[in-house]
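User: Can you predict the 3D structure of Serine/threonine-protein phosphatase 4 regulatory subunit 3? Sequence below.
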Amino acid sequence: MSDTRRRVKVYTLNEDRQWDDRGTGHVSSKGISLLVRAESDGSLLLESKISPNTAYQKQQDTLIVWSEAENYDLALSFQEKAGCDEIWEKICQVQGKDPALEITQDPIDESEEERIEEMPETSHLVELPACELSRLEEIADLVTSVLSSPIRREKLALALMSEGYIKKLLGLFQVCEDLDNREGLHHLYEIVRGVLFLNKAALFEVMFSDDCIMDVVGCLEYDPALVQPKRHREFLTKTAKFKEVIPITDSELRQKIHQTYRVQYIQDIILPTPSVFEENFLSTLTSFIFFNKVEIVSMLQEDEKFLTEVFAQLTDEATEDSKRRELVNFFKEFCAFSQTLQPQNRDAFFKTLANLGILPALEIVMGMDDLQVRAAATDIFSYLVEFSPSMVREFVMQEPQQTDDDVLLINVVIKQMICDSDPELGGAVQLMGLLRTLIDPENMLAPTNKTEKTEFLSFFYKYCMHVLTAPLLANTAHDKNSKATVLFCYVDNFQTAQLLALILELLTFCVEHHTYHIKTYIMNKDLLRRVLVLMNSKHTFLALCALRFMRRIIGLKDEYYNRYIIKGNLFEPVINALLDNGTRYNLLNSAIIELFEFIKVEDIKSLIAHIVDNFYKALESIEYVQTFKGLKGRYEQEKDRQSQRLNRSESDCSALYRRDARSLDEDEEMWFNDDEDDDDGETVEKNRMEDDFSDSYGKYMEAKKGILSQIASVSFLSSVPAGAANGANGANNNGKAAAIPPALPAVTPHSNTSTSSVKTAALPATPVVKVCTQYSNLAKVIFLIHLHMNSAVCQPI
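Assistant: Sure. Here are the predicted structure tokens for Serine/threonine-protein phosphatase 4 regulatory subunit 3:
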């Protein structure tokens, strides 16, 4: 069997009877196995052996579904019909089946397989009783009896499809209902329920057709366990109204929408919750609904005129509120259905919505007073953010050029979060999660726009951050009579505390991920001081949020933050909260202790010194932990180290100045002798390179001796004290400073009294004397060599 590769999506059925997307890849057949490798990295998504007894179903031309083990259903959704047909032929080839069939046999256990092998061929056929009122009980018994046997379920399904039996049964239902034959209606309930549990897509196609589905619903109304029948048909035909926000002209699309709604109603409302033994019986029904939704979204997406008209009415100011509400609810359902699409189709779907203007439309409807409209718009916005945060960010960054800050989309979202009327702030929590996704740098790494992170964060802190922090700043204010910040306790109610906790959670996220921008904002607004006011809140969870904010700042170990905390004395509210908490061993106590323990363990010296200097007297009585004594110990160790370093520096300086002039002269003489010895010890080298080096070195030493002899003639290099030298120069030159050696390369310096045509720049007397008094004679020589060499490149004045 040759290998083939086709693009597929792998699905598995979860415990809630929903299909989970396991990834996209390429399927191939290898021997008697199906392999699916991920298209992203080539990893193995699926390896499934084609068992001769496994039941495979082919649905809707591009879908193959099968059960690999008990309660483990798999599906391959193909991008192309040709790929599905090819894999289906290979499966049928392994199992020896006709590819024209849409289903192969079900798995059977060993005991049943042995029994079937012993039976004659004729016993494999299921003989259906005649479809008559008198034999309804017999039919019901037959249908319920085969449910425990996979092979008999398969044979019964084939018999029901081949003889058009379903439509005959539904005809009997109308007769029984006309005659009010309750016994017959109860038998029909068992029959229809059992047929649904056969889990066959071909039967569903018949039962859920326009001609039959309402009769199927009617049969399921007559549950024998109920005293009175349910009225499901009345609900579906009269109560449930199909609303067309824009008339749908495609009859096939309209029929598919009606069918999907009714089948979903049967699964969710009419059918009882399946037992553990029946969980797998309705897997095909779930698949039927799932792929119906895929078709609906695809058909709507392809109808450009329809979507264009919907957006035109949604953004039209003349549209009535009720109509706009219906349009928003339509888009909400539309986006929910889109989650069934394969990734490439879902990408195209959301790009289509973006091009049609979904984000400007959301900006309008999210600002409306209607709570239902705002809730639906929030759900749509969440789908868009989940799909592509970059797309949303790109849109909002273009807005300041067109509108005011108050109506920016992100500010509308923030205001809706702040103004959430739900006491539990359910909507606010959802919006806060969306905001965090938008400002998360981790998803700002798109290779197409490398500056997205910098540009968006700059935009957010410039146009949006003040809106986010407004409730926090409004609930903390400066006392006019003092520099302290006090809390308006009369607004410290539970809902306000919850809102402030959400805002602090978002700000804490910013501290961790937006190092530069949030640091600048905190410093400019003195935000940490305002946050720590909330340590006084009667709601402990809010005080913990404030403490967590500070803990995250200190956790960065940024000296810029540390200096800000020290200068503002911002440990005071934290320590006051610890002392006010008393001896209670609670979460607040543990969190504060952990903060100081972190400072001690990380040895943040500036904060340790500040805490011990200012608060140790208040904290030294806390002995149930060793944290504060440890801080004191760290503080004392650092003081000792500083004292030792200071003493060592002083002793080094003293040793330097204790050296007398005689010892310095001896050292200088030794240095000169070493130079001469090095010069005298030079020998003639043999090769050419060594000769060049020797000549260069000799020239260097001659120049050095010339410089030293020139320096020796300068009057202030004598061994007399510097003050005397300065005085002598003052006497000879009428108070003028000694001259720097001339710029020309002369061997003998000009005397003070000679008249030379070369003018020299004068060096102030005091600095030279000061330098000479602080350095040894050796240092003087080095200094003047350097000075002379620099002056050699100067031009004469």
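The CA atoms of residues 529 and 568 lie 8 Å apart. The chain has 35 helices and nine strands.
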